[in-house]
Amino acid sequence: MDARPPKPDYPKLADFMCFAVYSTNLAYGRAYRPILEELGVTYTQWIAIVALWEEDHQTVSGLGEKLFLESNTLTPILKKLETLGYLRRGRDPRDERQVIVSLTESGRALREKGAQRTLVQASGLEPDEFRALQKAIVKLRTNLIRHAEAGN
């Protein structure tokens, strides 16, 4: 007879929400790769461009807040996009401490190059399921940020 106590029933990797989100992010990256390679940008460069389509002429700090990126992470991305000719950076004449990021015609033209293709169909979800899941993930992110900022 085995005298060892039974093993605790610890959660498995597949039971962790954080792993589900992380691995889904990796899967999104793989699914987006052909689209982004065609455009010649990385995913992070892509989301910066999309944020500028939404609101052009933003400060680097404002753009960083929208993308959840620190300035030291965002600046090299913006420099590369500037080198590619998709945006320009310049000092705000009203406040020289602020850098304003603006799309060029080439940056705006990416939208017309089929860059609006989405992965809704690839997800296998119905459009209403996709929207509901996206809203739930945003709520999860918001709650986790609040929790972290509260120091809990």
Automatic annotation (TrEMBL):
<keyword id="KW-0804">Transcription</keyword>
<dbReference type="InterPro" id="IPR000835">
    <property type="entry name" value="HTH_MarR-typ"/>
</dbReference>
<dbReference type="InterPro" id="IPR036388">
    <property type="entry name" value="WH-like_DNA-bd_sf"/>
</dbReference>
<feature type="domain" description="HTH marR-type">
    <location>
        <begin position="14"/>
        <end position="142"/>
    </location>
</feature>
<dbReference type="GO" id="GO:0005737">
    <property type="term" value="C:cytoplasm"/>
</dbReference>
<keyword id="KW-0963">Cytoplasm</keyword>
<keyword id="KW-0238">DNA-binding</keyword>
<dbReference type="Pfam" id="PF22381">
    <property type="entry name" value="Staph_reg_Sar_Rot"/>
</dbReference>
<dbReference type="GO" id="GO:0003700">
    <property type="term" value="F:DNA-binding transcription factor activity"/>
</dbReference>
<dbReference type="GO" id="GO:0003677">
    <property type="term" value="F:DNA binding"/>
</dbReference>
<dbReference type="GO" id="GO:0006950">
    <property type="term" value="P:response to stress"/>
</dbReference>
<dbReference type="InterPro" id="IPR055166">
    <property type="entry name" value="Transc_reg_Sar_Rot_HTH"/>
</dbReference>
<protein>
    <submittedName>
        <fullName>MarR family transcriptional regulator</fullName>
    </submittedName>
</protein>
<keyword id="KW-0805">Transcription regulation</keyword>
<dbReference type="InterPro" id="IPR036390">
    <property type="entry name" value="WH_DNA-bd_sf"/>
</dbReference>
<dbReference type="InterPro" id="IPR039422">
    <property type="entry name" value="MarR/SlyA-like"/>
</dbReference>
